[in-house]
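Quick start: what a row looks like.
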Amino acid sequence: MRNQISFFARPLIILLFFSLSFEVLAALQQTTDRYTEYKGQVVNSRNQDPLAGAYLSVQNTNISTVTNNDGEFSLKIPQDLENVNVLVSYLGFQSRTLPLEFFQKGNVVIELKESLEELEEVSIFTYTDPKALVRNMLDNRGSNYFTDRTTMTAFYREAIKRGRKNVSLSEAVVKIHKQPYDSNADDDIALVKARKTADYDRLDTVALKLRGGPYNPLSIDLMKNPTHIFNEMDLSNFKFTFDDPTKIDDQYLYVVDFEELNKQMPWYYGKLFIDANTFSLVKASFNLNVDNRSAATDLFVKKKPGGTKVYPVEVNYDITYRQKDGRWYFGYGHTQLEFVVNWKRKLFNSRYKVDSELAVTNWEITKEKVKKDDSFLSRRVIMNDDVTGFADLTFWGENNIIEPDESIESAIDKIRDKLENN
């Protein structure tokens, strides 16, 4: 039987008519001298192409960040940390460990070399049945992943584009109250600080709103919520095949392609990157086929104006795990959805792209259960309705964030100028 469709595994888009409203709020936090911010870019050494989603972590701490689509990063490190090293890694590339002094030059460019090792000949790859490997991966999640409650500091960004132009942006620092991986309890998210902006003139009389906010990229944690795609007891609805193995850091990875066999409804396909030693899931990149427009619309679109047809044309997910002291935990989640809006009596349609990403930048083990308060977000939250407005450049303080893409930053500046002139 096909797996039940999970609400949180399918981010919901609500399409509504809008009324124009802006609010300008003061900054929540002033500058602090307790940390130093380092900026730069991570690129492919062979062709200088930027590496999006490269991982930077301060060794012997839980501090980390990831690069944006242009390979750029911003890493904030407490000033009381001296003589530390920063590990820079990316799937399929040789990692580099760099002393903090390297970053003090400012706007550094870090080149990573592609891994060229003939991995097919490495004797550690012993599995010949990809389905058995995936079953082992699922069976061992209790021993390979965190079994403690953890409180994670994370950065969330949600962006909406119409065509190539940014029309809406929400950003937030949140606390993820993560339950043990051997528990069925739900994870919770509390808001620390947030801001938003929107250029409604570009929204073509339709406002797209993403329900669930940071719960969407968190929900694709396949090792915490395996039944969102896979049935642990029965994998017969999937076809599994081996792809060429790869490597990250000093870890050899199996690469398993998967594809749902039942294609009557929207169906999943993608890649699993599985550690060859522990059989832990290190990374997953997968898609939802939405060729069945009617069924896909029912999954994603909660409300839309009359006289329109709205349907998704592309749905992509990425999840990356990090390792600490032999245990793995959620590190980064990214969801990307592209929608078409067709209006009656209009010759051309509109295309919207919705990106949401959640990156863990620090964490600590929590001994006691955290009591919920007003800062906790509902799983039906709409960030662009519920967060605060603009803030100055010191807004994020010492919290690590994902460096904004230049196009998004330009959009914020343009809207800020418009507000200040009104």
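That is the whole record. Residues 167 and 201 are 8 Å apart (CA to CA). Residues 12-26+129-421 form a domain with the Lipovitellin-phosvitin complex; beta-sheet shell regions fold (CATH 2.30.230).
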